[in-house]
Amino acid sequence: MDELVSINRREALKAATGLLTGLVVAGSPLSLIARGPAWAVDLSALTTPEGSTLMAVARTIAPHDKLDEAAYALVVQALDADAAKDKKNRAMLKEGLAKLGPRFAASSESDRVAALKKIESSGFFQAMRLKTLQVLYSNPIAYAYFGYEGEAFSKGGYLSRGFNDLRWLPEVPAEDSGPMPT
Amino acid sequence: MSSIDFNDSNAVVIIGSGAGGGTLAHELTRRGVKVVLLEAGKRQSNASFSQVPGDAFAQLTWLDPRTQSGNWGVARDFPTLPAWHCKTVGGTTVHWTAATPRLQPWELRAKTVYGDVPGTSLIDWPIQYDELFKYYEIAEQRLGVTRRNGVPGLPASNNFKVMYAVAKKLGYKQVHTGYMAINPRPADGRGFCIQQGFCVQGCKTRAKWSTLYTEIPRAESTGNLDLRAECTATKIEHGADGLANGVVYRDARGKEQRQKARIVCVAGNAIETARLLLLSDSAKFPHGLANSSGQVGRNYCHHITGFVWGIFDKPVYSWRGATLAGVIEDEVINEPKRGFVGGYRMELVALDLPTFPLVGLPYGWGRDFSSIIEGYRNMAGMFINGEDLPRADNRITLNANVKDAYGLPVPNVHVDEHSNDQAMRKHSQGQMSKMYDAIGAKRTVIGPTPPATHNMCTARMSADPRDGVTNAWGQTHDVKNLFVSDGSALTTPGAANPTLTIVALALRQAEYISQEMKTGQI
Questions:
Q1: Cβ contacts of A149 on chain B, cutoff 8 Å
Q2: For residues B499 and B19, what is the distance between their CA atoms, to the nearest angstrom?
């Protein structure tokens, strides 16, 4: 998990403005791949409260109750990187955050949904939605959570690793299928 | 690999190295013709293909700016990406999913068979089916298509087992693992399919046919090919005689170059092919090159497409296995009783996890949206591939308000769906939903129309020069040494994935060009 800086090996970042941290929950998808008992994400353009609010936005857009907070922190990390690169981007995030207010993260899911519905057509929300979908499902925590096995070439493909292991339906007759390569 | 002089006016210049351009380059060079092959993208290899879905997308996809208009869903859901094709040596054959069905005989006579459908610009093909069929047979051997010429089918994946069971439940008969240009066993110097499910990211075993590692290196080994990667054609020039005589392009460093040519063949995929002809206007051809008919860019077809997902209470692991290896062909018929003309295929499909929420699902967010993704493990997928009807105003134009990196107008893609298109989509989605429901899916989800992977008909072949851009050999009606060599030349799209037809037409065109060169006609 190179994306997540483990607390233990975290170096003091001069430019850091915020920090998101959490514990690795025992038995969670993250616990299978984490290097230590806690995770941390440094922010360089956003503050810790801003990061927490954006994390709550991401969780409201794509709620998966048992998916580790760290996966949502990766979304914020990507947003932070964009904000650090581009002032306009940073201004858009700050403006959106101002609209949501400081109590957004602590409010109930139905209140969060209602607040986001009000700003659904805004550039801020649309950018949040896109970034959430782009980042949340493309990292090892999500792969572990959804059972997605990803790249297969290095392991010889799925030919002998379950591409045809479904047993709850009848097998396909030979004429409509094909032989296994030998 | 040879180096051809910029001023060599005997060179054939081919623009684009995909199914059409790459095949044509091989066919001409092996007959001794000197070819300059211009390719806008970089050269990758099976070693360099990224296996990280997002990175692979960025590595292979044509991402130059484009605009859209019209009422089709893609303009709303994917406003910056009307089409999903490649910008790399080998073109779209690098990321294609390798389904290679043939067009049906009646699909070549769409106007005659479908009759006068208001709001369309249907015409019949200027080629008889028997003629096309001869080249299908050569193309199928060349590509090593499964279920043809004694090549066995691919073995059934989990996702296909679901498709097979549901199709049989509804009484469909023509259901199998598809006609695929994917080796089920080693052949032609390429490896065999190890069921990676990464067809779209570039096939690392090269089981899947691509011009990148078949036609292009073979053309290079003749000594007659000068492949210039990262070279983007910006204009085709002509002389006072009205014949094409060269191509202006930007090289890898952005420097303008000019290659003299005896013959120019355009194979840049239907959007860029039309754009390049339109960009090549002149005093003699004020509406663009080969556009006296006004047909360049018109009649844009993209197939009726869309995903349907079935979510079950047991695992499917749809991502394991060749992405598109499964088909139901029973609906490839013209039966107006269904409420539309033309036919459609139902094809197996899976999307990797990162791509699925972005492309596979209709716009949404919140609990309902994410609950679909919760079922990813237990999900099976199918895809429509149906015939859309050509319309004069569904077209590629130049958007003077938006410029690319070279200051040239970007293409605008305009699509207003015909009611026939909508009726076909509704019927096919209904059939697929019915199928999944019939074996107890917990939920079926109808996905959006994704960016077009099949782009066709923008410089179509026509018997009458007023109806299209080229004759039956892809030779433009207006300029006899200018050819269209990709899916742009298809007269109508039919319901077949276009690559096999593009290759067949390129094989045929190569014979014609070399013959015409020999006799001094061009």
A1: 317, 319-320
A2: 6
